[in-house]
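Researcher: I'd like a structural prediction for the single chain below. Treat it as a standalone chain; there are no partners to consider.
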Amino acid sequence: MSERINEEKLKAHYEKAKQQAEDIIEDPDRVKKIAERAWEKAKDLKGPLAEVWDQLKLMIQMIRAWVSGEYREVPTTSLIAIIAGLIYLLSPIDLIPDMIPVLGYLDDIFVLGVVFTQVAKDLRAFEAWQQAHSEKTPDTDDSSSEATTAHESEAPVADEPNEKDV
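Model: Treating it as a single chain, here is the predicted structure.
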């Protein structure tokens, strides 16, 4: 029974984040700030977020490319889901408080995993676009491909999730 209550609370928290995402999607500056804040938090949590690290990094890259206008081939529903996941990650009010070692990020990992499942097709399309785009740009930084190849090698984490500043 308590698992069901927690699942319902988790869903309620995510739905609230989704409503916030729907409210701010029209304001690229706010979307960019959320992506930046999420990246700053994520960099400090790479260990606890290892399970969703590659996907999280790719989602932030896609949001940043969308905000900059470089990549617009993403459905609004996917943008909202990703922004909601980032808002949930940033929220100090989680189902499991983040200050609890290890366990504190389980709900964040779960929500980000659900978001990734919802937008996986769009992320694959973005990843293909990103790879094609980086092949055309001779001065690109290899850190942009880290999200897609991190499972193949232990490359150092870049300061930014995208090869260009937005």
